[in-house]
Amino acid sequence: MAKILIIDDNHDLRDFFSILLKKYGFETRTATSRDEIDSHLTLFNPDLIFLDVLLGNEDGRDLCKEIKKINKNITIILLSGNPQVLSNYDLYKADDIIEKPFEIKEILMKIKKFIPKSPLLDDVFTNN
């Protein structure tokens, strides 16, 4: 089972991602700030991270670079409602972006792109 970490300071969005991803067979954890991330990286060891760019006073893009220094193999998808802060995502070592607001299918397609062996997602894309 693939593991996905959701890092966002918005409680509703974290809950939404958790419920959605569990429905499709993923194990999830959530975090709201830099302080919570280290233990998730070592103990949970996620395959993919959804990371909000604006985390209170923290810049998720800088956090993305820090995480990639620790483990360059973790896939990180940056999230933001501001397309300008997502424009140079590759400079921050992010693998992809999702602009808010988003469609559920977009989230699932991004996951499928980076975690191709997701049987429940196979069903979603073959039935449409």
Outline of the structure:
This protein has helices at 11-23, 34-44, 60-70, 83-86, 104-114, 119-126, and strands spanning 3-7, 27-31, 48-52, 54-55, 58-59, 75-80, 96-99. With 128 residues, it is of the alpha/beta class.
Structure description:
- With 128 residues, this protein is α/β, with parallel strands linked by helices.
- The chain is 45% helix and 23% strand.
- The chain has a five-stranded parallel sheet with strand order 2-1-3-6-7, with helices on both faces.
- Helix 1 links the parallel strand 1 (3-7) and strand 2 (27-31).
Descriptive key words:
128 residues; five-stranded parallel sheet; two-stranded antiparallel sheet; 6 helices
Q: What is this structure's SSE topology?
A:
Elements: E1 3-7, H1 11-23, E2 27-31, H2 34-44, E3 48-52, E4 54-55, E5 58-59, H3 60-70, E6 75-80, H4 83-86, E7 96-99, H5 104-114, H6 119-126
Parallel strand pairs: 1-2, 1-3, 3-6, 6-7
Antiparallel strand pairs: 4-5
